[in-house]
Amino acid sequence: MDIAIGLNADGPLEATIELATQLRARGFTRMWSSQIFGPDTLTVLAVVGREVRDVDFGTAVVPVQPRHPTMLAAQARTVQGAIGGRLSLGIGLSHQRNVEGMWGLSYDRPALYMDEYLHALAPMLRGEGVESRGERVTAVVPFTIGPKEVRAPSLLVAALGPRMLEMTGAMADGTLLWLTGVRTIADHVTPTISAAAAAAGRPSPRIVCSLPIAVTADEAGTRDRVNESLKVYGTLPSYRAMLDREGAAGPGDVGLFGSREQVLDQLHALASAGVTEFSAAVSASGDEREATHDVLMAFARSSVAT
Predict the structure, then answer these.
(1) Which residues, 6 or more positions from 237, have their beta carbon under 8 angstroms from its beta carbon?
(2) What is the pLDDT of residues 134-153, one digit of tens each?
(3) Which domains does the chain have, with CATH numbers?
(4) In which region does residue 201 sit, left (phi positive, over 0), alpha (psi from -120 to 50) or beta (all else)?
(5) Phi-psi region for residue 180, left (φ > 0), alpha (ψ -120 to 50) or beta?
(6) What pTM value is reported for the model?
(7) Which of 43, 122, 271, 302 lies in the 20 to 30 Å Cα band around 138?
C-alpha cells in the first residue's frame, strides 16, 4: 500500500507551494488536494507541480456537476502536460444541497449523471474524439480536447454505493474513499469494484482511502475532536451510509488513532482490506503531527522493503 498525504490548498498559493515543499522534504511523494469552496485545485496543482517536480499530485475530488466534461478534459490534460504527467484526476458527485441550493442545477438521478459523464469524459482524457448523447450529459467532439501530446491522467471516481462502484470499475482506474472504514472496504468496496473491473477486462483498480489519522496518547480526546470538526459529513447521505455500514456513530469513529503500534496495525489492516494507497488526513499538531509523519514514513519504507 502506497502512502500519500493531503495537501491543504485553501491558503495563499505561495503557502501551498511551501507546504508541498516541506512535505516532500519529509518524504512524501504523493499528495492529494480537495476541491471544496477554496481555490481551483487543478489550477493550484499546475503551479505547485511546476515547483515541486518529483511528486505525484491528485484531486480528491473535483465535483462534476458545475463542469461540462469537455471543459474538465481540457483543464485536466493541460495540467497533466504542465506537471510532466504526474496527475491523477479524482472526480465525484457533489451533494444535493450544493447542486440545487448553490448552483441551481438538478440533482435528479445522480448515478445516471455520473455514468453519462464518464462515457463522455474518459475518451476525451485519452485524447480521443467522442460522440456521447445521454439524457443528462451530451458531448459531441470529433477531435482532441486540450494539448495533443499528453498521456491521459489516471481517472478515479469517488464511488461508495454499489452502482457507483460498478460503473467506476468498468470505466475508470479506481476509486477515492473518504470516511469509509476498514470493514466496509474489505466487505463492500474492494469486492464490488474489483469484480466490475475484471468483468470489463480492466486492470485491478486503484483504491485510494483517506481517513483522519493521528499518533496520540489521547485517543478518545482526538476522536471526539475529529467527530466535532467533521460532523457535517455525518449528515450527508453518501457518507452517512458508509458510516452506518461500519457501525460508526461519527466520522472520528473510523479514524486511525492511538499509539505508534496501534496506528501501524490499522494501516496494515487497510492494506489487507484492499486499499492500494492511503492518503493521510493528519489530525494532529506539534509533536503528535511529527510522530504521525514518522509512522507514515515507516510504513512506506516497510512497504517498499516487502
Answers:
(1) 95, 96
(2) 999 999 999 999 999 999 99
(3) 2-215+266-305 (3.20.20.30)
(4) left
(5) beta
(6) 0.97
(7) 43
